[in-house]
UniProtKB/TrEMBL annotation:
Source species of the chain: Trichlorobacter thiogenes
Pfam families to which the protein is assigned, alphabetical: N_methyl
Domain of life the protein comes from: Bacteria
Transmembrane residue ranges: 12-32
Name this protein carries in UniProt: General secretion pathway protein G
Amino acid sequence: MNRLTTKGVTLVELIIAVTLLALLASAILPFGRMTAKRTKEIELRRNLRTIRLAIDDYKKAYDKAVEQKKIIVTLQASGYPKTLELLVEGEDFGGLYGAKRKFLRRIPPDPMNPAKPGQPPQWGMRSYVDQPDATSWGKEDVFDVYSLSDEVAIDGSNYKDW
């Protein structure tokens, strides 16, 4: 018997292999983009929760200082921080804690609306007297924060409505 032994791959086998790889790649790329978007959404939720908890903790500390008569309440004061930076710099609340109490180490970034290099993180803010869906900040205090991104989330909601 005369057997012909071949080494290598035929053109048909090569075309089939390349086609299969192209199909797999076309399925994996959108999945990778979706995974990256989902990761950024998780980070946005975490950062919003962190800032909102810090704002609430500031308000609780303010109320405690008022209750213990460490500070005098003024008519316009809501008890919320005047700026986000105040959460990082700290407040002493009339000596309630003996030193400035800091509520954040740094202001977390908005992953859906990244700041330019050298700029602080940019968040949309609402004051206590603003409407719940206001898009402009009254600048009296910081009652809530939201993303400035106009993009739509995976679930169909807008990031700025979170």
